[in-house]
Amino acid sequence: MLTKRQNLMEVINGGNPDRFVNQYEFMELIMEAPMDLPLAPAPGTRIKNKWGVTFDWPADQIGSFPMHDDEHKALKDITNWRESVKAPSVFYSDEEWAAAIAHADSVDRNDKFVTAFCAPGIFEMTHHLMSMEDALMALYEEPEDMHDLIDYIVEYELAYAKEVIDHIHPDALFHHDDWGSQRSSFISPEMFDEFILPAYKKVYGFWKANGVELIVHHSDSYAANLVPEMIEMGIDIWQGVMTTNNVPELIKQYGGKITFMGDVDSGRVDFPGWTRELIYADVKKACEECGKLYFIPNLSQGLNISSFPGVYEATSEIIDQLSKEMF
Length: 327
Fold this sequence. Notes:
methyltransferase; transferase; 10 strands; Methanogen_methyltrans; globular; TIM Barrel; EC 2.1.1.-
C-alpha cells in the first residue's frame, strides 16, 4: 500500500495510485506558525488584525468578512495607500515559533507533506483593505497605485515566506486567494495577467526555489478561465474547484500540468440537514466523471473542516468507501 504522499504523487504524475487521495490527507498543515493575519474571529465577535482590517463574524452566519463602512475601512483612498497601509513585522520570537517547529519535526515526511499555510492571498488582501468594489475600480482607475500596492504585499509575503522556510522547512504550501464567484472570475484573464500573475510568479517561485515541492492553491470559485495562468505561476493543485468549472473537461485539457482538488461543492452538502446519502451521491458522481488521475475528491471548503459538524468526516469515510468500490 502506498503512503499518502506516494499515492498523491501517483495521482498528480499520471501514475498508478492504489486509491483516491482522500481530501487533505497528504498535507500536514502547520497551523501553529505565527501569523499576523488571523483566520477569523470567533462567531459573534469582531477583531482587527495588524494590517488594520476589521473582521466581523455575525453569530447567525457561517463565516466572517472584513468591514468596509467608513468607520472600519483600512484604506479609504488607493492614491494614499503609502500613508494608510503598513505591513506588520514578519519576525517572531523563538518561543512563538516553538509549537510550529515541534509539529513539523514530528511529521513523517515519507507519509505526508509538511505544509505551510498562507492566507489571505494577494488579491484578497487588496479588497480586505479597501472593499471589493474599491479594489476592482482601482484596477481600472489607478493602475499604477494598484501595481505598487500589490508589489508591497508581495514583498511582505516573500519576507514572511523566508521566516517560515527557515523555521519549519516545509515540503508544501497551501495558499488561499479566491479569484471568482461561482459563475465567473472577478477580473478578466487579461487583467489577471497584468496584476496578479506576475505577483504569484514571484511568490510561488520563491517557495519552490527554497525546498517546497508542492504548491496547493485554494480558490473555491469559478476560475476555469485562469487555469493557464495557474500553471504558469507554478500551482500544482487547484483546491476548491467547484462543479461550475466543468472539472472533467478541465482534466481532459490540462491533466498532467495541474491537478484539480474538489468537485464536491460544500454549498450543496454542508448544511444543517446534510445526509450521508446526499454526500455519497455527489462524491460518487465526481469520482466517476473525473477519474483516478489529476483529480482529488474534496469538499470545496478551504481547510480540512466543514461548516456543520460531521460533514468533513462523513465525506472522508465515503471517499474511502468509493476507493474500495472503484479501485
